[in-house]
Amino acid sequence: MTEIPFNRPFATGRELLYVREAIENGHLSGSGPFTERCNRWLQQRVGSEQALLTHSCTAALEMAAMLLDIGPGDEVVMPSFTSVSAANAVVLRGGTPVFVDVREDTLNVDEGLVAAAITPRTRAILAVHYAGVGCAMQELVTIAEREGVPLVEDTAQGIVASYNDRPLGSFGALAALSFHETKNVHCGEGGALLVNDAAVAERAEIILDKGTNRRRFFRGQVDKYSWVDIGSSYAPSEINAAFLWAQLEEAEAITARRLAIWQAYHAAFAELEEQGVARRPIVPSSCLHNAHMYYLLLPDLESRARFMEELKSVGIHAVFHYVPLHSSDAGLRYGRQAGDLVVTEGVSERLVRLPLWAGMADEEVARVVDAVESACASITRRASARVRST
Ligand SMILES: *Cc1c(COP(=O)(O)O)cnc(C)c1O
Question: What lines the ligand 1 site, CB under 6 Å?
Fold first, then answer.
């Protein structure tokens, strides 16, 4: 029995060709021709003022916190059900993440709770597009404008996805993308900062380049470059950018293949949902998603553990996330929660992610479907046995 991993980093076949070209270009540090090509692709695809490749989404979020001048006493409202990156970015500047609950349907931040969590100290709202399904952007944009607080999008999972026909990453003043190997389009480790607010575009380049105006120097706009602001070394090497270019070229094809697998899962599990054993993802009609993730919500923690064991026994690796940020050690130390986070706490115990990558074969998808169906049957049998014995 061959194992089915949760993710197998996908390669389009042109990665080595472009990495060879990068070597032959004789430019392997950041900001070379492949970086420029990727930046232009992202900038045009999303319609941003500027796109800057970074070495991770985490780096792009750190840049966002610097660009927003987050400092001690400042608050950033964000979901607790997400990756640690945005919370860390705020804490590294001395600010406080304020955690709110997510919506039951999309597992995206609950816009009503965002509005309620705003205080005079709020400096930004962070929207995370979970599973590549857009947050309620119309409402979030309205709240941000009304409160005069910038909106930042964590678009780590949202490449080529849209909300009301507008690309994710185009709504906020800033947006961060991830090209980590678990994301749809990747280069092992990588990311990008999208700048939609023209007023901070030049500063973004400076922060990316160790707080120097080196890029202005290379463009001949200043006669020497020097330290002009805070910053760090956030640019990826041309080797990563060359690898990434091979993936961006195929972004539509990768998305189409992932969507086909997602649809196969979704159709196969309709019956499980009707039986009440597993809830499937909900995608609002305003959202065109990118099949970043296929997850199921099981009845409880115990059934999820059983489900994952059953899959493992037939060589299938399913995973779960996120441990809520608000109740984690660092979350308690550095952040605060606004209101109860009952949806986050429940989902964190019940969610399971199924294997999904662009190179997944149809027979692998079929094996996962069979295994999910038998694991759910086993959960149901146990539940009815429990009912009979009480
Ligand atoms: C993957 C991910 C990140 C982190 O991305 P890196 O590129 O690994 O830094 C941040 N936020 C979300 C929502 C993610 O899914």
Answer: 56-58, 82-83, 85, 128, 154, 156-157, 178, 180, 191
